[in-house]
Amino acid sequence: MEPESDLDAYSKIVSGVAAELTPKVASLRVPQGGRGRDGGRGGGEGLGSAVVFTGDGFLLTNAHVVGRAQGGTALFSDGTSAPFSVVGADPLSDLAVVRAAGSTPSPAELGEADRLVVGQLVVAVGSPLGLAGSVTAGVVSALGRSLPTRSGSAARLVEDVIQTDAALNPGNSGGALADAHSRVVGINTAVAGVGLGLAVPVNSTTRRIISALMQDGRVRRAYLGIVSVPAPLPAPLRERFDRPNGLRVAEVVAGGPADRAGLRTGDLLISAGGRPVQKAQDLQRLMFGDAIGQPLAITVMRNGALVDVIAQPSELVAA
Fold it and tell me: What is the reported pLDDT for 287?
């Protein structure tokens, strides 16, 4: 028997992921007002995709797919359909949870995007038309991208967005980005350019957001009121803390929690809440509902000395 070619092995992986996930990715038909970034729309309805992730009918999709709609119709690859209601949407992460009435296919397995590496094979599975679905394959072309989002007057960067060259078709927003083992590592969200797509990562932060949407229908976030950028630590601190970077405070919002706590532009954040901070996501991970109104110890380097301040984050108001 001749050895299996690289192409055959590649095809086997992609077709296996497609067979596993296509039944678990629904097409969402959303009443007008739920337009996706990719522009998918037909018959006066917004079109998008969603991934079944629990055995009792919960599906994960993009917030921009459902928009302000309260519900719609989910269509599956076996020809069945079910009405769904929007459980909760979070525009600042571009994630939403919906729940289909009646039986749904078995759930997809959620993976861990933080383990991805550039060059790794990924497969995008969507269901833009509610028929047999849409499957494309490619590689992780970049990691650590940021996706600007906005909700009312509140703005945020979704960190560690996955960039892939797996083509995204119209209506694929909200569909699955999967690894070679059919684990969903991202939710496809946008076309970044010719041949490039972006996906919101599935990781510990995502899981907190999903949990909050399922329980409360929304995500409460704490607000510190600073703009920060990664910056190198001085050599003595690099050796002391065994890491290369901290976060430089580029701007302090007047009257905000950070301003009231005495943080200043130019401060170099070393830690917050007893945890090291090296990038914006490290701080954002602390800014969930349980931090609102609670003391947050922050250590900064200022004028060559370590300074401790106590901030009390307030609630981020979207509108």
Answer: 87
Q: What is the CATH number of the domain that holds 34?
A: 2.40.10.10
Domain count along the chain:
3
Q: Is 290 in the active site?
A: no
Q: Name the catalytic one among 64, 151, 179, 282.
A: 64
The domain in which residue 44 lies consists of: 6-100
127, 151, 173, 182: which is the annotated catalytic residue?
173
CATH of the domain at 288: 2.30.42.10
Whether the full predicted model's pTM is greater than 0.85, yes or no, is no
| Residue among 49, 77, 93, 94 flagged as catalytic | 94
Q: Residue 180's pLDDT is what? A: 96
If asked whether residues 168 and 229 sit together in one domain, one would say: no
* pLDDT < 70 positions in the chain: 1-7, 32-44, 129-132, 150-157, 192-194, 318-319
Is 282 marked active-site? no
Is residue 173 part of the annotated active site? The answer reads yes
CA distances from 68 to 54, 86, 241, 262 (A): 23, 9, 46, 39
